Structure to design on (287 residues):
């Protein structure tokens, strides 16, 4: 459904899905490899899709430094953490030691965030389902609104609201959220107040069957342009399919690194998918 009108790309994806890639499919992928990232593929525009969190972190950091070198003012936002329901004596306890470092264990709210007007970000919280403002939605910051009508950040503890353009219905106001979650080592309940967004020039893409895509919710997203990593760091069957199928067309795809051995196997990646495709093909013949 995402690749409407692109028969070549759809055939490639179907072959990849069931483990039946042919030489012509690899030739197509090779043709999209290591092209000069210009136009919509430059570092600050096209989404990068990686299999590991470390690759995502490294790329987002690289883009931040790219903007910093251009003289862009970048604001560092730090979450407000506290214990609200302590089950142990917590005198002299360093909150940093008992607050989980995994964003999936802190309600999707990050500990630190560096933002500026123009930064590409992703929602990590269902803000308004009726408007499509859900976990995984990507947009650009158009305005930073500081507390008490200040024009700039005055204190390290300042957490602003932001307006984000998600590409539909104009810019939406996103305010800080407060989330409670278990503290580490049975220290009770912790609370974090923070903007429910993360930087998103790069995303983790994890296979459906692994079902760990909660980090960046790439599984449900579709983009016009993306640079996809298909190299040696792919670690799960189906990752390449999920990453490639986020892109609408071959023209919107560049491949950063390609390890063909990661895309082949003796058995289909997904037997259920293979059976369903056979069922649909047989059904179409009947009509």
């Amino acid at each position: 459904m995402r690749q409407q009108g692109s028969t070549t790309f759809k055939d490639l994806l179907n072959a990849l899905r069931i483990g039946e890639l042919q030489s012509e499919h690899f030739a197509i992928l090779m043709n999209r490899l290591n092209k000069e990232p210009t136009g919509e593929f430059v570092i600050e525009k096209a989404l990068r899709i990686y299999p590991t969190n470390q690759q995502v972190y490294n790329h987002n950091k690289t883009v931040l430094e790219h903007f910093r070198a251009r003289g862009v003012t970048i604001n560092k936002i730090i979450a407000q953490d506290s214990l609200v329901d302590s089950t142990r004596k917590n005198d002299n306890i360093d909150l940093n030691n008992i607050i989980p470092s995994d964003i999936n264990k802190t309600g999707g709210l990050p500990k630190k965030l560096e933002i500026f007007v123009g930064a590409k970000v992703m929602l990590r919280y269902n803000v308004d389902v009726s408007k499509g403002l859900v976990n995984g939605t990507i947009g650009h910051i158009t305005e930073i609104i500081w507390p008490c009508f200040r024009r700039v950040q005055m204190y390290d503890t300042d957490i602003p609201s932001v307006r984000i353009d998600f590409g539909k219905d104009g810019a939406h106001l996103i305010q800080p959220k407060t989330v409670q979650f278990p503290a580490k080592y049975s220290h009770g309940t912790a609370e974090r107040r923070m903007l429910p967004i993360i930087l998103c020039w790069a995303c983790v893409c994890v296979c459906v069957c692994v079902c760990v895509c909660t980090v960046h919710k790439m599984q449900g997203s579709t983009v016009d342009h993306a640079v996809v990593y298909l190299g040696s760091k792919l670690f799960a069957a189906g990752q390449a399919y999920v990453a490639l199928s986020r892109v609408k067309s071959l023209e919107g795809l560049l491949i950063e690194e390609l390890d063909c051995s990661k895309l082949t196997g003796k058995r289909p990646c997904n037997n259920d998918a293979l059976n369903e495709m056979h069922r649909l093909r047989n059904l179409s013949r009947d009509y």
